[in-house]
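Record 1 of the preview.
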Amino acid sequence: MTRINPLTGKEIHICVICKGDIDHHIDPTTGECYWIIGHNAAPVKDGRCCDTCNATAVMTARLKPMFGDRAADVAVGLASAQKMSLEALKKIQEEEE
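->
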């Protein structure tokens, strides 16, 4: 599912779960966009989803068979660790400049 951004004329992918725009992933070094199609939304829905829905709904659904009622906590922990890793990488790159 996509729409056209009226300001840029570029295609924007839509999350099948929340119906919001799918996040564009930007390389912190070059500033260039390298990924625009989001994540696989299965098993929640067929199609692609945004970062937020992937980190909450999708990861929780995937982890539930292994972690039961703790699945949501594990999914949040994984998302936090990924965010911290990206922030640490960006800080290292800034210090090198």
